[in-house]
Design a protein that fits this description.
The protein is mainly alpha-helical. Helices cover 71% and strands 0% of the residues.
Length: 756
């Protein structure tokens, strides 16, 4: 009796862990890490899944494996997921960037390791769910999580957020709650809302037995449902809105088909009208300014200009398809997009996004799977998802399917239908986005729930529960080894990442406070715990470059100047070493661009021709990798100025200017205008300085005047300090030209600007 009780306690532990995962992952974030949302969610999810696996294996060791009949009934439904994971593994082995494909990038950490954890999570759930009460508790866990997510989203919407974010949800009128990004929150809610509808629909005591008909309950439920929909719309995620239409459309088609197939024309007709209206307004050029005062209506109205709303992604989809054609079978590996999309970077990207932003996803689930694992991966992915929908639809359209054998009058058709509708809407939404930790947790959960309910797996009985197996020395040894393995995996997969991320955050914090000594120390700690992660190496290198630029050489004694110069060279050497420790085949675009920056600065300090040539070679590699990135030529101009190659420097600056977008373009917003002008400012200043050296004074004036005009155009007072510097240079230039009136005029403007 004691041993059976222990086994039941292990079942309770298993269920507790997966309920914590379902409830806690979407809510969890840590502000003491460089990535506040995705990395903490990844760490907590993987840690809990590893504990879940340990407890499940412990249960098998102590009480034997499940009954063979029970296993045969369930294991076959793991085959689609197993095939998909195997193909992802093959694509990882032959990946273009194996390290990133296994571990994932620093933004998402969605490598093969994470996908493997999700498969383990789903497998244990499929092998462990045995009764309807477990399903109910999962549903309530999801709804409880959504309640706290919604309350926090509401707080953001009314400016009561207790935290400060660089992305202000109240100011920008787009909330992200604990999920971390408005589009991700919108997609996640598509999976949550159907669960709440299931609990409302299954109100009969014989069915779920936990909900009583009370006015207060229905009033609260109605208010909460409205809140969920309001939060969904407050994300202003067009992809989620399209997903909601798909969700409703799926429900409508299935309901109508089941009741009367003749009326199936109704949802088809409604969809045709909706598509027709979108096409009509896109062709007719609908006036977008009429609702510009209302952010929600304005966001809805952007559907009438798909060229503006979707052109950025369409350009990336075209690039993705071009890449897919070159490697169609097993793809490039997970996390590889960031190593390919920079080759397709064009100036037009800066119309829709800040300059020098390189996507790590194609923002289309199908294309992302094709890029990661090729057509083999896509077919296995569609097989995984398609088999679940096949099970669900087959169950719904087959009459008299009981929810439990002992309950003839109840079935799970409605829960299965709502689960499929939520999954369908979510999958539709990520045709314009991608999976993240919060949504992928529920994605795999929905696959399991639809399978379990539609295949009547709750009817099965695990006869192994009646077995009692004693604890032997051999089993004790295995348990100890598993504990050691759990500790190793937790340290290697999760703890080191947490420490590195935390220390990097501390380094950034110290740097912002001007404590460079502490910043260097924290950077080195971050690298110590993740020595193979390129991100921490390249960020340390960037900080060292910024430190060299920050520290002035102002000593009066030549010995002190020499000491400072040697220290700067040492810092630059350390930064260069960190960048070169990253394999060239796995060197991200940031490392490729930053390496010549450090080498260029080193060449300036040493004055050695070999250092100049090395920096030039690195700039050429960067330009070959991403030929239309203006920033590369912007900084290359600095190198040529250091070499006093004036014509060559002017050529690089002109190349940079040609690669910046037109700031008068109707699709560029004010924030991106300012980013572009900020990056153009040193180019115009360099061109003005070069023209002065070449005694082309009128040309120099023209360059200064152009950038002053651009700054005034895109900024409102107070203007950036760079404008004061430009006026001062113009005053000096006119004085040199003997134009005292203009020199005094711009000196006055510089003084006024400085006063402001």
């Amino acid at each position: 009796m004691n041993e059976i009780k222990k086994k039941n306690e292990l079942d309770i532990v298993l269920e507790t862990i997966w309920l914590i995962i379902v409830f806690f992952v979407p809510l969890f974030f840590l502000r003491e890490m460089h990535n506040v949302f995705e990395i903490p969610k990844n760490i907590i999810f993987q840690t809990l899944v590893e504990i879940l696996l340990f407890v499940y294996l412990l249960k098998i060791i102590l009480y034997g494996s499940p009954d063979k009949g029970f296993l045969r009934q369930r294991v076959k439904y793991l085959i689609p997921g197993f095939i998909f994971i195997i193909i992802l593994g093959v694509s990882t082995i032959f990946s273009q960037v194996p390290w990133f494909s296994f571990w994932g990038s620093w933004e998402r950490r969605m490598g093969y390791l994470t996908w493997l954890h999700f498969f383990v999570f789903a497998s244990i759930l499929l092998l462990s769910l045995k009764n309807k009460q477990q399903i109910i508790r999962l549903f309530f866990s999801i709804v409880a999580c959504s309640f706290f997510v919604s309350i926090y989203g509401l707080a953001q919407a009314v400016n009561l957020d207790p935290f400060e974010w660089t992305y202000d949800p109240f100011l920008l009128k787009r909330i992200f709650s604990a999920v971390g990004q408005p589009n991700f929150l919108g997609s996640w809610l598509l999976l949550v809302i159907p669960i709440f509808l299931i609990l409302l629909a299954e109100r009969n005591k014989r069915e779920f037995g936990l909900i009583k008909k009370k006015l207060v309950f229905y009033l609260f439920s109605f208010i909460f449902l409205l809140l969920l929909f309001w939060i969904l719309f407050a994300t202003k995620s067009r992809g989620a809105w399209v997903g909601l239409v798909a969700l409703v459309g799926f429900l409508s088609v299935v309901f109508i088909w089941k009741k009367n197939k003749k009326f199936i024309i109704i949802p088809i007709f409604c969809l045709a009208i909706l598509v027709g209206l979108v096409v009509f307004f896109n062709q007719s050029g609908f006036n977008k300014t009429s609702f510009s005062y209302n952010p929600l209506l304005f966001r809805l109205q952007t559907f009438t200009d798909l060229k503006e709303a979707g052109n950025y992604r369409l350009m990336h989809w075209q690039a993705a398809w071009d890449l897919i054609k070159k490697k169609p079978f097993f793809g490039y590996g997970l996390g590889s997009q960031r190593f390919n999309f920079p080759r397709y970077y064009v100036p037009a990207f800066s119309l829709y996004e800040k300059p020098n932003i390189y996507l790590d996803y194609a923002h289309n689930d199908i294309l992302d799977v094709l890029l990661a694992a090729g057509f083999a991966g896509l077919l296995s992915y569609l097989f995984l998802v398609g088999s679940v929908f096949w099970f669900g639809l087959k169950y719904i359209f087959k009459p008299n399917q009981p929810f439990l054998v002992s309950e003839k009058n109840s079935d799970a058709k409605l829960p299965v239908l709502f689960l499929m509708a939520g999954l369908f809407g979510y999958l539709f939404s990520i045709l314009f986005s991608f999976h993240v930790m919060s949504t992928l947790t529920y994605f795999w959960l929905f696959l399991v729930l639809i399978t379990v309910l539609s295949r009547n797996l709750l009817d099965g009985e695990d006869k192994s529960e009646r077995r009692v197996i004693g604890l032997t020395p051999e089993k004790s040894l295995i348990i100890i080894l598993l504990l050691i393995l759990l500790g190793i995996s937790w340290w290697h997969f999760n703890a080191r990442l947490y420490l590195s991320s935390h220390y990097f955050f501390q380094a950034q914090k110290a740097k912002s406070l001007g404590d460079w000594q502490k910043a260097i120390k924290e950077h080195q700690r971050a690298i110590k715990f993740s020595p193979n992660d390129p991100y921490f190496h390249q960020e340390f290198a960037l900080s060292l470059y910024q430190l060299v630029d920050f520290l002035p050489v102002s000593a009066d004694q030549s010995s002190e100047i020499s000491l400072i110069l040697n220290q700067k060279i040492d810092w630059l050497d350390l930064g260069i070493v960190n960048l070169k420790e990253i394999s060239e085949t796995e060197r991200p675009i940031e490392a490729i661009i930053w390496l010549p920056w450090l080498e260029s600065e080193r060449a300036r300090l040493t004055g050695q021709e070999e250092d100049f040539l090395q920096a030039e070679r690195s700039f050429q590699k960067a330009a070959d990798f991403s030929p239309q990135t203006a920033l590369i030529y912007n900084k290359w101009c600095d190198l040529e100025i250091y070499r006093q190659q004036w014509d060559r420097a002017a050529e690089m600056c002109e190349k940079a200017l040609l690669l910046y977008p037109d700031i008068d373009h109707p699709h560029i917003n004010i924030e991106h205008q300012q980013c572009v002008v900020d990056e153009m400012t040193p180019v115009y200043l360099n061109l003005g300085g070069i023209s002065q050296i070449l005694n082309e004074m009128e040309k120099a004036v023209d360059y200064y005047r152009k950038i002053a005009y651009l700054i005034i155009k895109v900024y409102s007072p107070p203007y950036p300090t760079s404008l004061n510097y430009i006026y001062a240079r113009m005053s000096s230039l006119y004085a040199e030209m003997g134009r005292k009136d203009l020199a005094d005029f711009y000196a006055g403007k510089a003084q006024n600007q400085s006063g402001n």
